[in-house]
Amino acid sequence: MMYSSRRKPVLYFKEEKRFLSGKCTVYKLFGLCMVLVLVSLLWLQLSCSDEMSASMGDDRHFRAPPPPCPADSRVSAADDPSWGPHKLAIIVPFRERFEELLEFVPFMHTFLNKKKIRHKIIVINQVDHYRFNRASLINVGYMESGNDTDYLAMHDVDLLPLNEALDYGFPEDGPFHVASPELHPLYHYKTYVGGILLLTKKHYYMCNGMSNRFWGWGREDDEFYRRLKKAELQLFRPSGITTGYKTFLHIHDPAWRKRDQKRVAAQKQEQFKVDPEGGLTNLRYLVESRQELSIGGAPCTVINTKLECDHNQTPWCLLT
Predict the structure, then answer these.
(1) Model pLDDT for residues 266-284, shown as the tens digit of each residue
(2) 196 has which bridge partners?
């Protein structure tokens, strides 16, 4: 009887399930263990997902910070003395030139990094209803460039330097005209100082910046040349550059993007006059917003700016 009672459980399973008997018992046990492991892993994954969702709360855009990376043995630009002590503010006067900007920012960032020029790119975006005023936007760039920069480049968005021998270093001795008449693809007259011009902030202040009277395209650079002469600043230009008019890539398409060359009211006569008082001292503007962007991996700051116009002084700020 004892033997019979001890055998009943085995007989019971054998009759109903036939699970733990026979030659396949070991394999069946292994299969059961694998199922239990898979169920456990699935439960663990679901639990972790619930905890992550709870920690995020209602913020759908939050991303958990990645684990800290090992310390980089390379010296950063801020700590590398070979980059020099100066920092350049690239001032880009801008309105609705997005295709050029997408090409300009990553190109210039790479170009200046190769030359070990500390820099930041500042795009002054005119968002008011007045005509484009390049000179006033450059004045705004000077005012908004911050204390961490000590010289600036008045830089057209459609002009890219192709020759790495071009100097973008600190112009200690005087303004340095990178896009000189001998190299610029379009403008070749002796007094031309447009396109790309480097100045220390001190020298720009000595000129009282640029005149704010030039609404529409052109002539503001010619007036600024006279300011340089009045401030007794010596103008320097590149030497030893052998690439000629192929030194820069001009990416402006005149057929697709027309320039505002209209002359309204007395503007035709006034455009040739020197503005003895205007500049930084009578600049009026409002910063509507700032945006820190990355274009093609290159950082830049966009300052959306509304200029103000004295209609009595410059009625040609509007097209009528």
Answers:
(1) 666 666 677 888 999 999 9
(2) 155
